[in-house]
Structure formats: C-alpha cells, structure tokens
Design brief:
The chain is 71% helix and 1% strand. The protein is mainly α and 451 residues long. Strands 1-2 form a two-stranded antiparallel ribbon. Helix 1 crosses helix 13 and helix 6 packs across helix 10.
Length: 451
C-alpha cells in the first residue's frame, strides 16, 4: 500500500501543488510545502526500492521472517507519513470526499495496513529484535542448544559458543572504530568514492554499530524481552539500515538509465535513513537498561564510542537545497524521474489524475509567461493569453470539490428535514422565549454546540 501511495500520491500532489495558488504564488514554491513533497518523494522511493528487494528475495524461495517484519513495520509507517503530508498539501481537496478526492480513501485505509498481522507498535518493540537476535545471531543458537543438551560434550560446546559470541562482539567494536575513525579523520576518505561506495561504507559502519549493540543487549538475558523501548530503538536502526541497502541496490540497477533526478531522491533517502539509524543507536546508548554491577553504563559507553568515535556526528539531515531539488521532481518537468518510476504504474487515462497530469506542463508554461510579462512590463500576446487562460481553467477545475444537494435516498424524500436542523428549530424559539420572559427557571435551555 505504501508503494501505491508513493506512486499514486506523489505525482498527483506535486501537480496539485503547482496548479494551486495562494497569494498569487503556486504553493509548490512554499518552503513548508516543499519539505512535505520531498518527504513524499523520498519515502516513496524507499518504499519502492525496498519492496522490489523484498520481492526478489521471496522470488528466490526464501522466507525471511525478520525482514518481513522490518518491511511491514517500516514501509506501512512511511505510507502513513506520506498520506499525512499529502493531506496537509491538499487541504480541503483531501477532506471533501468524492470521486476527485485523491487522498481521502487511502487516509482512511492506512490504519488497516498498519494494524493487520499485529500492530506496528508490537512489531517494532518486540518482534523484530526479540525474534531477530535468536534467528540471525551467528552463535547464539549454538549456545542455547548447548544449554538444553544433556550429553557430556554440552558444557564444552557452551563455553565454545560463549567464546565465539565474545569474539564476535570484539570484532564488531574493532570494525566500528576502524571505519568510524577512517571516515571521520582521513581527509577525502568518502569524497573519493562514488555514490554507491560512499553510502555502502556508511551502512557497513552502521551495521557494525548495530551488531555491537545487539551483542551487548544479550547481556540482559531473559530481561531483554521486557525492555521493549530499548528493543524498539535497535529495531529502528536495523530497519533503516536494511532500507538503506535496498535503496543502494535499486539505484545501482537503474542509475545508468536514469537522469539526475534518481540520484537526488536516492541521496535524500540515504541521508535520512543513515541519520535515523545513527540517532536510534545513540538513543539506545543513552537508555541501556540497568545491569548488575553498573555494567549498563559501560555498555552504553561502548555503543556511544562505536557510533561517535571522535565525539561528533558523521551523519547530517538532507540540506534545504537538496530538499527543494527533490520536491521539484514532483512539481516540475526538470527530471523524468516521476514519469519513469512512478506514473507508469498509475491509471491516468481519465478523471482527476488525468486532469492533474495534463495541467502540470500547461501551468508551468503559464507561470513562465507570467514571470516574463512582469519583467518586460507588457500585456500578453494572443497566444500567451490562450495559454494563461488554459492554465486558469485547469486550476479552477482542480481546486473544485464534489458537492451534493442531497446525501442518500432518505434525504431525497420530499419534505425531509434533517433531525439536527429540526431539533435546532425547536430549541431556539422556545428556549429564547423562556429565557426572555422568565419561564420555568429550573428548565435547562438546550444550546447548539460549537460549529
């Protein structure tokens, strides 16, 4: 559903923002709207890329339960974020239900996707890490099986498994420090690499950071399953890291055939995902559950050192310039990104979507003409006036919402009066008369509620 929202909502809301004007300016030029549009484009691309990666895994006859949980929780949540931003931009056009409402049905349906098969709250705070550690740790299952075994070699296998777990933790800490220091202290370490290599190196370090945090979390033993806030933060890091790898895979597969727009949206997505993972680990480091002998303080310090080896963050949010450029992917024709990756999967042959798709190039052309006329201080030519008139007609059609004289068969009956209106008509004359003429003083006078 998130993929459908990203593909169906992104180009449509972008066209709407270009057509809709406030203070004689397209709302697509407002900074706040550009932030929302960039989030729709970015999360839409994350949902698209990760879904294609997951489909490829399933097509290979794999059944990755933990990845399925990550996808369900992360992608449906991003679908909710996208539809909320879309509703903010559409305003009344998203609230007034009818055939031309692009967002209302999805807005009403997204809680179903989030709730089905277990709410995202439980998936994030319990299932991903609670099941993931046992299924994905390279040595934990061996230790558990040794504990449950009764043969004479079980103690030796247990000690061997514990030793391997300790070695795994030290290895992750060493990798975290090595990559963290090289990426922060060596000048040009990442700038010399291409887009995929740069972000792959960052994800590799974040993966090592997460693995260390997961190893230290095992020291909680059985208490870990009750520390759901802590597990939720680890799940945030793991989910963002997996989505980041999915974005890189999709970008690498399509970069040579796409224009610069794909690079822009992939960059925006990667910066956000890396910062999400980074911040989740820092939050986890600050909130390690209490352990005997105060070991939670040491565990938090180790995680924090691995994530920020020199005390400064290596991850920043997307810049305002990049955010504006990404929003332009949905509101202009500077890039073919939307037409190549989003629009082909959406029905645009008629209805409001066709109107929006047809309106975008006309409104862009009309805006360019209007800017030219202001600079040259002249009236439009007949050809220019026709384009402006056509754009105005599109704008007028797009901002209209469905209206009805009657709702349903009951209201179409002759003489029908809505109960609320009939009650109000009954209240006001009698109530006001009683208040003015001192009627029954202890009789409550009904008052209409707030409008």
């Amino acid at each position: 559903m998130a993929v459908a929202i990203g593909k169906g909502l992104g180009p449509a809301v972008g066209s709407y923002a270009r057509a809709r004007k406030q203070f004689k300016v397209p709302i697509a030029d407002f900074g706040g709207v550009q932030e929302a549009l960039a989030m729709i484009a970015s999360d839409g691309y994350v949902s698209l890329a990760s879904t294609e990666t997951m489909n490829a895994i399933v097509d290979s006859h794999e059944a990755p339960m933990v990845l399925s949980s990550i996808m369900k929780q992360n992608v449906t949540e991003r679908g909710r974020v996208m539809i909320n931003h879309g509703m903010d931009i559409l305003g009344g056009a998203g609230i007034s239900m009818g055939r031309d409402n692009l967002a209302g049905p999805a807005y009403a349906s997204i809680p179903i996707a989030i709730t089905v098969e277990g709410a995202n709250v439980m998936t994030r705070s319990f299932q991903i890490i609670g099941q993931g550690l046992m299924r994905c740790h390279p040595h934990l299952l061996d230790v558990v099986e040794a504990l449950e075994a009764s043969d004479k070699d079980a103690p030796a296998r247990f000690l061997k498994g514990v030793g391997k777990m300790a070695g795994h933790g030290f290895s992750n800490f060493r990798t975290s420090l090595t990559l963290g220091l090289s990426q922060s202290l060596v000048p040009g370490f990442l700038s010399k690499k291409d887009f995929v290599q740069t972000h792959e190196a960052r994800l590799k370090r974040l993966a090592a950071n997460f693995a260390l945090a997961a190893d230290l979390a095992l020291l909680l033993g059985g208490r870990l399953k009750f520390e759901e806030m802590f597990m939720g933060r680890l799940a945030d890091c793991l989910g963002a890291t997996f989505l980041g790898y999915s974005v890189l895979v999709h970008y690498a597969q399509h970069a040579d055939k796409a224009d610069a727009g794909l690079r822009l949206v992939a960059e925006h997505a990667m910066l956000r995902l890396e910062k999400e993972a980074h911040d989740a680990l820092l939050h986890a480091a600050d909130n390690v559950p209490k352990m005997p002998l105060g070991f939670h303080v040491l565990a938090g310090s180790l995680i924090r050192t691995a994530v920020k080896p020199i005390g400064i963050s290596l991850h920043e949010a997307p810049s305002d310039t990049l955010t504006k450029d990404v929003s332009d992917l949905l509101t202009t024709l500077k890039s073919t990104y939307a037409n190549e990756f989003l629009v082909p999967a959406i029905y645009t042959s008629d209805g409001i979507r066709k109107t929006l798709m047809d309106a975008l190039p006309v409104c862009l052309q009309a805006d360019d003409i209007a800017l030219k006329l202001r600079k040259e201080k002249r009236e439009p030519t007949s050809a220019e006036a026709q384009i402006i008139k056509k754009a105005d007609d599109f704008r007028d059609a797009i901002v209209q919402v469905a209206s009805y004289d009657h709702l349903g068969a009951v209201e179409q009956q002759e003489g029908y009066v809505r109960p609320a209106i009939a009650q109000t008509q009954d209240w006001l004359p009698h109530g006001i008369r009683a208040a003015v003429h001192g009627g029954n003083s202890h009789r409550k006078i009904p008052r209409p509620g707030p409008s």
